[in-house]
Amino acid sequence: MRYHRHVPGYYVENFGCRATQADGAALERQFEECGLDRAVNLAAASVVVLNTCTVTAAADQDARATIRRVQRQNPQAKIVVTGCYAQRAPEEIAALPGVAVVVGNSHKHRLAEIVEHPTLGRRSPTPDSTLVPLAALEAEARVPDLGFDRAGRGGAPSIFVSDIFAHTELLAAPVFDAANERTRPNLKIQDGCDNRCSFCVIPYVRGQSRSLEMSRILREIKALVESGYREVVISGINLGRWGRDLAGADRFEDLIRAILAETSLEKLRISSVEPMDWSDELISLVASSARIAKHAHVPMQSGSDAVLRRMHRKYRPWHYREKIEKIRAAMPSSAIGADVMVGFPGESNAEFDATRRMVEDLPFTYLHVFTYSARPGTPAAAMKNQVAVQVARRRNQILRELASEKKLAFMRSFVGRRIEAITLRSQDSAIQECDSGIGGISSQSTEALTDNYLKLRLRGTYDPNCWISAQVESVVDGALVGAI
Q: For residue 62, what is the domain's CATH number?
């Protein structure tokens, strides 16, 4: 159902993880179905949606800074704040000058309807629309007493937030990187988490684990293939738990087999999967199919058994080590990455050293290193012996330097070898067709991403979204350099 077209337009700015980016793509789809145009930037928009993250204190700070920036650059815009920060602290956000509406994750699937509501937005839907129960929306809105006037903005902002654990909706739409719109869309197929890691606020802002139905996933992937995309990334908050909430006995491995059997997708890339869910069956599937990227991201968090127990993680260091060793044995040239946290409450020098040693020992090709950030309401925030900031930062630096050394050694191992990659973009206006098999002679280069998640700079310019085989010549500034 489409509404009558109004003045351009909306602008969505996303913060944080791939799941938030995917939610943002679904929000844009909502607005398009309402007949609204997308503004070229936030300064030109009549509605600015800030789709927030709250995984760290810095993420909250970024959202607040952006609200202030929108007010400066576009004081007439209706600012709508949604996402994880909005779910966790709606009153805190509503108290910020300029905010018109706060929509938690519990109501995000109806955000466009809320914005278009006659008392909250700019117009009502067409009379025959059944999308918006107006009285119900009005009843759901909470208007806090903030103690100051919002002249010209219709009074205090309305808040739409309810119990996230009663929420069963799952927003899904492919995400296209703004810099690489013609390649590698990301499709979120799972949301929420049933784990309760002591440091993590995500279950409290995203709710219980829920999965996109297999039939819809296959339809989305087929549509992407028909549109010309050659690689698709599937992602989720706890991706390996896909299917556990659906009727029937399908599990994540069954979905992977169905994608291979029922679509013609050339390359499937799997994003982060918890160590418990890297079953022998999944490892074998990824290793045996040329259509699955040789890439395993396996969150570790800590190499200390004591720290993992305080984190309420569901594996021990020896379990984790076993999984990584199996992945490397099955896929000798695969990318293997991990999330690692430093500075968790009570982390001693010896506990950190256990993490450092594990990172040294295991065949990681990259790491995402995070410094612990206390999240209100989580068990870890109330723990004693919080680690000093300067100590945590130093530990972070140690692991980043170690990860850089391991990544460089991994990249250098490909010098003199041929490697498969997908082209992303080129700055040269004279494009050389990638199917010709002829190397480029231009001084320009083309950015590509290898099957095993390494940056590659090709000599010459080529169309994006082409699979190529390149001869690697050197490693320069964190990227492979080569030619077709």
A: 3.40.50.12160
**Phi, psi angles (nearest 5°) of residue 215:** -60, -40
Q: What is the CA radius of gyration of the chain?
A: 24
* Spatial distance between the Cα atoms of 94 and 106, rounded to a whole number of angstroms: 16
**Domain extent at residue 435:** 418-483
User: For residue 315, is it within any domain?
Assistant: yes
Alpha helices by DSSP H, listed for 50-133, are: 57-73, 84-88, 90-94, 111-115
Q: Which of 162, 178, 208 is the last residue of a domain?
A: 162
pLDDT in tens, 27-80: 888 888 878 888 888 888 889 999 999 888 889 999 999 999 999 989 888 999
Query: What three-state secondary structure class fits 174?
Result: coil
Residue 65 vs residue 142, higher pLDDT: 65
Burial class (CB in 10 A: 0-12, 13-18, 19+), 313: buried
- H helical segments located in 227-348: 252-262, 280-288, 305-311, 317-330
Out of 142-146, 160-164, 437-441, 463-467, the most confident range is 463-467
CATH code, domain carrying 356: 3.80.30.20
Do 277 and 307 belong to one domain? Answer: yes
Question: Would 179 be classed as within a structural domain?
Answer: no
Tell me the pLDDT tens digit for each residue of 75-126: 888 999 998 999 999 999 999 988 999 999 889 888 888 887 655 433 333 3
Instruction: Give, in order, the Cα–Cα distances in Å from 442 to each of 73, 252, 260, 428.
Output: 40, 44, 37, 9
Phi first, then psi: give them for residue 374, nearest 5 degrees.
Answer: -65, 130
SS3 content of the chain, % helix, strand, coil (to 5): 35, 20, 40
CB 49 within 8 A of CB 11: yes
Q: Is 339 exposed, middle or buried (0-12, 13-18, 19+ CB in 10 A)?
A: middle
Q: How many domains does the chain have?
A: 3
Q: Which stretches of 158-227 are assigned E, i.e. beta strand?
A: 158-160, 186-191, 210-211
- Both tokens of residue 158? 């309305």
Shared-domain flag, residues 313 and 429: no
Distance, in Å, from the CA atom of 283 to the CA atom of 62, rounded to the nearest integer, reads 38
Residue 285 has pLDDT above 90, yes or no: yes
Is the domain of 91 the same as that of 237?
no
Same domain, 36 and 62: yes
158 and 191, same structural domain?
Answer: no
**404 and 460, same structural domain?**
no
304 lies in the same domain as 453 = no
Tell whether 290 is covered by a domain: yes
- Position 175 in a domain: no
> Three-state SS for 458?
strand
Element (H, E) at 134: helix 134-140
What is the pLDDT at residue 36? 81
